[in-house]
Amino acid sequence: MSIKMIVTDVDDTLLRKDKTVSQYTLDILRRCREAGIKTAIATARGHPEKVAPVEQFDGKILCNGAVIVADGVTYRQTIPYREARPLLLACCQRGLRVTTQFNAMHDSNFDVDTVWPEIKKWEAVDFSNHEVDIEKINVDSVTVEDAIFIEQNMTANMHLKIARDGLGMIMLKDATKSKALAKLARIWGIAGSEIVAFGDDLNDIDLLIYAGVGVARWIEENVLCN
Fold it and tell me: Which of 49, 55, 69, 110 is 20 to 30 A from 43, alpha carbon to alpha carbon?
């Protein structure tokens, strides 16, 4: 099998527990690129450059697939704000902590510093007046009951992913890591069978299935390896 592309999740896969990247990993990435192998990250984060060495990657899949960056071009799939508004208001009425994300900015119905202090660009808003299209909706600490509620209030054009830490993430139905990877591969003329993918969480499953080789990284309580 010829490997032409390597794609990796960021948190708990590329990054160690202290949110750093080992020198060994950096050396492997450098050697892959020197050998002509394309490298990419696939993350729920919108701006992984805060924690990841993005300069070591040829492409970026961000916001769980809602945003793709390749060869200096950014592709976005956004939820129209008019379509998102009823869901956002329903979540607010239920008392859920919600942020919406577009580019570097997060709009929120709560004090983001209390939950995600690493997010620096955010603003408290009234979602009844929200008029910004959305790459990704984040819902903090989603329970099973919350997930059912969210899915009942989503449109058919959206889908919900829940990470093992309970973070709920809502994107357009076609905004997934695997579909973004397929587009990135088409841009570079690479077949799915020529890709190796690494991940550790529930939102990585479709990515690992799409790739020719999918590697589930084991960490404590990792559902992918149980």
Answer: 110
Q: Tell me how far apart the alpha carbons of residues 167 and 147 are, in angstroms, rounded to a whole number.
A: 10
- CA dihedral (218, 42, 208, 140) in degrees, to 10, reads 70
- Residue 49's alpha-carbon distances to 54, 55, 164, 190, in angstroms, are 6, 9, 23, 25
Question: Of 112, 119, 97, 100, which is closest to residue 48 (Cα–Cα)?
Answer: 119
Structure tokens at 176: 């997934």
Q: Do residues 171 and 159 touch, judged by C-beta distance below 8 A?
A: yes
* Structure token digits, residue 56: 């070591």
Q: Domains in the chain, ordered, with CATH?
A: 5-76+175-225 (3.40.50.1000), 81-172 (3.30.1240.10)
Token pair in block for residue 206: 């479709």
The per-residue pLDDT for 1 is 67
**pLDDT tens-digit series, residues 17-50:** 888 888 998 999 999 999 999 999 999 988 888 7
Q: How many residues does the chain have?
A: 226
